Sequence to fold (270 residues):
Amino acid sequence: MAKEVSKFSSALRPGRKLRHIVILVGVALIYIWAIEGSKTNPYTLVKGFPYIVNYIQRMFPPDLSILGKLTFKVGETLQMAIMGTTFGAALALPLSFLAARNVMPYRPVYQATRTLFDACRGINEIVWALLFVSMVGLGPFPGVLALTMHLLGALGKYFSEAIEAVNQELVVAIAATGANRIQTVFHGVVPQVKPLFIGYIFYYLEHNFRAATVLGLVGAGGIGIELITSIRLFKNQEVLTTLLVMVLTVTAIDRLSAFIRMRFIAGVEA
Fold:
């Protein structure tokens, strides 16, 4: 019997090796196609290195005289991020239960909700901002709407996947007590996914701030318009100042969100 298994395994090895070779060749062809199409050339980067160094040198010292103006714009950008995150999460939260297989038994509803999430997530924030600027005019509000739409798709996907990954034994145990579907979801699913939901929301608050910084490119307000203006006018020292302010703000948001997440998770465990 052992000899037969050994012979069978030996017979499979050539086929397995051939499959691996085909996969490697396919991957190599994809990379060759991508490198050719994107004109990726390390020599071009090496050749341009002196210009890169020169550009960075011209950014120093940072122009601190624009800090007052940037503070206002950072506040506007943060306001956009907060409202976009709030609206996006508020819409994604209930819809995510419709996009989870273990909660939504009706396949047409499940597929329709997943398709909605794909459509919202598949369109970049800048494209959404362009559309909303055309609809409601210039300013930060179209930026809020753009962040909301993209976040609806992103958080909807992550929320629904978190719901599908819950411990089903706990859900079944609660259902066995006579709880109806809503009670089962509320007591069996929500407590398991709540820490993940909080983490995702705070992560996307930081993400939305970064995204909001570039929405100024299409007239959606925020600090992005200051950055784009400085770049176009070759005010390199202002560019550096704006970048530093953006990095410091993102770092502050990250530290604050990490602190809140840890306090919340500790409260849940207690």
Remarks:
- The two ends are 57 Å apart (CA to CA).
- The chain has a mean pLDDT of 84.
- The longest helix spans residues 2-38.
